Amino acid sequence: MPVKNRFAELLPEITAWRRDFHEHPELLFDVHRTAGKVAVLLREFGCDEVVEGIGRTGVVGVIKGKTDTKGRVIGLRADMDALPIHEATGVAYSSKTPGKMHACGHDGHTAMLLGAAKYLAETRNFDGTAVVIFQPAEEGGGGGREMVRDGMIERFGIQEVYGMHNMPGIPVGHFAIRPGAMMAAADQFEITVTGKGGHAAKPHDCIDTTLVAAHIVIALQSIASRNVDPLKQVVVSVCTFRTETEAHNVIPQTVLLRGTVRTMDHKVQDFVEARIKQIAEGTALAHGATAEVKYQHGYPVTMNASENTEYAAEVAREVSGQVDTDTPPLMGAEDFSFMLNERPGAYIFLGNGDTAMVHHPAYNFDDNAIPFGSSWYAGMVESRMPAA
């Protein structure tokens, strides 16, 4: 089964939706225009139920098949939010809001799932119920977690759930997936180093927090290089180094470090949390300072269930015939993981071609990928719930 002919016919319409979303990017949970348009379209398609405000600003559409002999329910998810980046693509449909752009392709994900919803509502060639999920705040806000907390899984009786993300560097129309850990858990930490500030010309009268913090930054790199099994993936990155003064002749009283931890294993995640605390506090103590560590767990590991991964790969093979089923895991994070923690399912990458990487100001979703993505979404419903 190649790309469904209906999506080739719908391509201009789906592309128009995508470019409209691109022109009007919205951040985190503040996706009122996007969610509103999604809801309007789902109602126009004839969905049996459209519910707004799930997880604050999420939208859920319910599409019933021609039959429902087994009570099966499949969920399909797309994210809607953009990023706080100033666009540099130069395309005619560039963002109309300075400092905001769809730099991760969520406009494409939303449009592709809308296309699939229109097709499924037209054909209803399946035995069961399809639930299309449009999620806010994937980019750091935990919208997936909020939709789960709002009771979405139970309310709509979702039994399996599937998601997709475009990926630059993979040819358009090709897919990539793997069983098990697909993307990393993403945690964040803050370390406040407190010493004794003073005049930079008299460091002996001070406890130099800049020096102490620098030693902590260097020591934290030993976690990945010397504390964790080299076969286990881990990233510890200090991304902010902020003193309380910008003067060239003042030793600051405090320094704030902020960073991220990426892991693929719960035991490694817990170990790294404890080790950061030990290193920060011990290094500070050795220099006569103190360090306070705040550690926050973020998105969990995106874990593909083995059986569901094969279901997803098989539909991808039917759509394009080009599927990498052993793609390397990524240390990026994805809050679709909250849905996968509740129900079995899988997350797949769809090629975006030779474009700028996601989160880059020159990134742009390739509209030629739309028929492949929409076909895969619809194919998951028809494959997992074949018509009676």
What can you tell me about this protein's structure?
With 388 residues, the chain is an alpha/beta fold. It is 35% helix and 25% strand. It has 11 helices and 16 strands. The strands form 4 sheets. It has an 8-stranded mixed β-sheet with strand order 1-2-4-3-5-16-6-15, sandwiched between helices. Strands 10-12-8-13 form a 4-stranded antiparallel β-sheet. The chain has a two-stranded antiparallel sheet with strand order 7-14. A hairpin with a 3-residue loop joins strand 1 and strand 2. Helix 2 packs parallel to helix 3. The two termini are 19 Å apart.
Keyphrases for this structure?
388 residues; 35% helix; elongated
**Number of helical runs?**
11
DSSP strand (E) fraction?
Answer: 25-35%
- Which structural class fits the helix and strand makeup? alpha/beta
H/E element sequence: HHEEEHEHHEEEEEHHEEEHEEHEHEH
Would you report the number of β strands?
Answer: 16
Q: What is the CA–CA distance across the termini? A: 19 Å
List the helices and strands and how they pair.
Elements: H1 5-23, H2 32-45, E1 49-54, E2 58-64, E3 73-79, H3 106-123, E4 129-135, H4 143-149, H5 152-155, E5 160-167, E6 175-176, E7 180-183, E8 185-194, E9 198-199, H6 209-220, H7 222-227, E10 234-243, E11 250-251, E12 254-263, H8 266-286, E13 290-299, E14 302-304, H9 306-320, E15 323-324, H10 337-340, E16 345-351, H11 370-384
Parallel strand pairs: 3-4, 3-5, 5-16, 6-15
Antiparallel strand pairs: 1-2, 2-4, 6-16, 7-14, 8-12, 8-13, 9-11, 10-12
Helix pairs in contact: 1-3, 1-11, 2-3, 3-11, 6-8, 9-11
